[in-house]
Design a protein that fits this description.
Elements: H1 6-14, H2 18-38, H3 43-62, H4 72-106, H5 114-130, H6 133-143, H7 148-155, H8 160-180, H9 182-190
């Protein structure tokens, strides 16, 4: 069977054609998932990103703002990639904020020393990866500006108090791991 044209895809999405929507998901989602999982993302994040991209495409189709100068799949992939890049920027900003909190509390040395910053980033990444999957998920959501309610819903926790407590404990555990790492202590001593 011949793949649908850009026009067929746009018309099918506009009309909620289940065969076209299934074709779009079957044909283009795996590429998006591969990109996101290869770039520090999860399958769940890939599904969310793809869904967000499809909503953007649908809104542009409905408002007659979509004019393609490339294949539909290329366009959809570009939207997914742009959303993921923005999500990663938010994540990295929140992770940097937490890393700075570690620095302020423990004052290892000059914040403008690039070698120190590289070591601290490596320490952060190492200890983040050693956290439980739940803590990684909670802190990733926290770094991406998810509310406590959003985290509660995603993690299927019973109440907000438990969720806030869990987030606090995960953050505290990460900071404690970094601060107690022999490399962190050595850097702190060398820079004094």
């Amino acid at each position: 069977m011949k793949p649908p044209s850009n026009t067929d895809l746009i018309k099918g999405i506009r009309n909620h054609d289940s065969a076209i929507l299934q074709y779009v998901y079957d044909s283009y989602y795996p590429i998006t998932e591969g990109y996101i999982t290869h770039n520090q993302g999860s399958r769940e994040q890939a599904r969310d990103i793809f869904q967000d991209a499809m909503i953007i495409v649908y809104k542009r189709i409905k408002s007659d703002e979509l004019e393609l100068s490339c294949k539909f799949g290329t366009y959809l992939y570009a939207i997914c990639k742009n959303i993921w890049v923005q999500e990663r920027k938010k994540y990295l900003q929140r992770a940097e904020k937490l890393r700075q909190q570690v620095l302020v509390v423990n004052d290892p040395g000059p914040a403008d020393d690039p070698l120190l910053q590289d070591h601290l980033t490596d320490l952060f990444n190492k200890h983040f990866a050693d956290l439980s999957k739940d803590c990684q998920t909670i802190l990733s959501m926290y770094f991406n500006n998810f509310s406590v309610e959003d985290i509660r819903a995603e993690m299927n926790y019973k109440d907000l108090h438990h969720t806030a407590d869990r987030k606090y404990r995960c953050k505290k555990s990460l900071i404690k791991r970094i601060v107690n790492d022999p490399l962190f202590k050595r850097l702190k001593n060398e820079l004094r």
